[in-house]
Amino acid sequence: MAVDYDLVVIGGGSAGLVVASAGAQLKAKVVLIEKEPKLGGDCLHYGCVPSKSLIHAARVAYDVKQADRFGIYTQLQEIKLTEALNHVHQVIDTIQHHDSVERFESLGVEVIFGSGQFSDPKTFTINGRQLKARNFVIATGSHPALPPISGLQPAGYLTNMNVFKLQARPAALAVIGAGPIGCELGQAFHRLGSEVTLISSRDQIMPKEDPEAAAVVQQQLEAEGIRILYGQRAEKVEVIDGRKHLWTNQGEHLVVDEILLSTGQVPNVDSLNLQAAAVEVGKEGIKVNEKLQTTNPNIYAAGDVIGGYQFTHVAGYEAAVVLQNALFLPTKKADYRVIPWATFTEPELARVGLTEAEARSRYDDVYVLKQAFSGVDRALAEAAGLGFAKIITRSNGDILGAHIVGPAAGELIHEVVLAMSQNLKVDALTGIHVYPTLAEVTSKAALQLKKQKYAENDFLQNFLQKFFEFRRSVA
Ligand SMILES: Cc1cc2nc3c(=O)[nH]c(=O)nc-3n(C[C@H](O)[C@H](O)[C@H](O)COP(=O)(O)OP(=O)(O)OC[C@H]3O[C@@H](n4cnc5c(N)ncnc54)[C@H](O)[C@@H]3O)c2cc1C
Ligand SMILES: NC(=O)c1ccc[n+]([C@@H]2O[C@H](COP(=O)([O-])OP(=O)(O)OC[C@H]3O[C@@H](n4cnc5c(N)ncnc54)[C@H](O)[C@@H]3O)[C@@H](O)[C@H]2O)c1
C-alpha cells in the first residue's frame, strides 16, 4: 500500500524538531504536528531556556549583594521580577526564530498545528485529515506531575508552565520537590528576593546525584538563607485570609504566597489514542526497545515521552537514533553509557556515568579520584573554591563516571565525557592544562590514580629508596 509520507512526527520540541529537520534535509517527506501554536516545546518555552535565563538574572543580583567581598560597595536598590522575566522572554523570542515554522517549511517540512490521534496502526488523523506514513515518531514530551496534596487544586499553584509569567514576586514561596527544577528555581527566586522554603521528600536534595556532591549544593542553598525541610512531603493546603497555608506529613506548617510544584514529569500520551496503534505505555512512559521502536515497530518514540533521562540533549540523541532507524535500516541501538547532565544551581553540579556506590556494586577495583576546587588557583582567584571533582575509575584507568560540583561544572564535565565516549584511560586527562584555569580540577583529579597507586605500592617505594641510596653511594 502506498503512503503519503516517510515520517509523521508528533510533537515539535527538542526530539521532534531534530527528527523533522534532519529527515527533510535527507529528502524524506516529513510532516510535523504540534498542538501548541508555536514550535520549540518545553525546553524553549517552559524549561531550559527560561530557567537558565532567570538563573542568570538571579546570579547578577547575588553578585551585586556579595560585591563587598571584593571591596566594591554598592546598594542594591530594587529587584523587579517582571523586568528579570522580560529578559527571559527576550531570550525565548530570539531562540524562537531558530524554531520558526518558516525555517522548518524552508527546510521542506510540512507543519500542521493541532491535536490529533491514531485511528489505526498506520494512520494519524488531524484536523479532519488522515495522514498515512511509513513510520511515525511520537515526541510529545511530558508535563508536570500533580502530587496528591489535599486542597492544592483549589488553592492554586505554580509549575514550570506558568512560573515564568508571574506578574509579581511572591514574598514567600514554598517549593515542593528538591530535584533539579526545585533547586534551580528555588535558588533563583530566593536570590531575586523571595523567602523560599524547599520541601525535600528525602534526607538529601537532588537524590539522583552523588550524595557528597549534592551536600555541597545543599550547604550553599542553606548558607544563602533558603530553608530546607528534609524527609517531608507536602500533604495539605488551605487558603486562609488570602495566603496559602501548607502542612507537611511531619506537621510543619508554612504560610506562603505561592506554591511551586517540582515533583517530576509525566509523559504526554493521553490524547493520542495509542491503543488504536497498538502502542503500549509503561510506568515511565511509552515502552520502547533499544532501537526506540514502540510495541508497534513502525512507530518510534523519543524524548521525555519514553521517560528515562529527561534532558534536551538526550532527546536530541534519541532523535538521531530514531531518524537512522526509521528512514533506513532499523539497526541502530540507543547507547546510554555516556550521558552527561548538569544542574545549574550555584555551585553547578554535573555528572556523567556511574556514582561511586553504583561503581562499587559492579566492580571490586574501584578508585575514587578527588580534587577540591580549593586546590585550584583559578577557583580561589574567583572566590569560588567550594566543591570538587570526583572521577571514578577502575584500577586499569577505565573511567566509570565523574561528578563535578563547583564553578562551571556543566562546562568542565565535557572533558571527561569525551574521554569516556572514546574509551580513553583516565591518564588521558592529565595532559597539559592552561594555568590558571578551572579545568585544572580535572587534570589534578585524574593524576590521583597514579598517586594513589604509588602510595599503595610499598615494593616500588622501597625499591626506589634503595635505588637512589645506591646511586648516591657510587656517585
Ligand atoms: C524547568 C525545566 C528546566 C529544564 N532544564 C533543562 C536543562 O537545563 N537541560 C536539559 O537538558 N533539560 C532540561 N529540562 C528538560 C527538557 O526540557 C526536556 O527533557 C526536553 O524538552 C524534552 O524534549 P521532548 O522533545 O521530549 O519534549 P518537548 O520539548 O516538551 O516537546 C514536546 C512537544 O510535543 C507537543 N505535544 C504534546 N502533546 C502533543 C500532541 N498530542 N500532539 C502534538 N503535539 C504534542 C508539545 O506541545 C511540545 O511542543 C528542563 C525541564 C524543565 C521542566
Ligand atoms: N538542569 C537540567 O538539566 C534540568 C533542570 C530542571 C529539570 N530537568 C529535568 O526535568 C525533570 C523533572 O525535574 P523535577 O525536579 O521536577 O523532577 P525529579 O523527579 O528529579 O524530582 C522531583 C522530586 O520531588 C519529590 N517529591 C514528589 N512528591 C513530593 C511531595 N509531595 N513533597 C515533597 N517532595 C516530593 C520526589 O521525591 C523527587 O525527589 C528532571 O528529571 C530533569 O531530567 C533538568
UniProtKB/TrEMBL annotation:
Membrane-traversing stretches: none
Domain Pyridine nucleotide-disulphide oxidoreductase dimerisation span(s) in chain numbering: 339-445
Pfam families assigned: Pyr_redox_2, Pyr_redox_dim
Annotated FAD/NAD(P)-binding domain residues: 5-319
Name of protein: Dihydrolipoyl dehydrogenase family protein
Top-level taxon of origin: Bacteria
InterPro entries: FAD/NAD-bd_sf (IPR036188), FAD/NAD-binding_dom (IPR023753), FAD/NAD-linked_Rdtase_dimer_sf (IPR016156), Pyr_nuc-diS_OxRdtase (IPR001100), Pyr_nucl-diS_OxRdtase_dimer (IPR004099), Pyr_OxRdtase_I_AS (IPR012999)
Keywords annotated in UniProt: Disulfide bond, FAD, Flavoprotein, NADP, Oxidoreductase, Redox-active center
Species this protein is from: Almyronema epifaneia S1
PROSITE patterns xref list: PYRIDINE_REDOX_1
Protein family (similarity comment): Belongs to the class-I pyridine nucleotide-disulfide oxidoreductase family.
GO function term, MF aspect, one: oxidoreductase activity
Cofactor: FAD
Principal EC category: oxidoreductase
EC number: 1.-.-.-
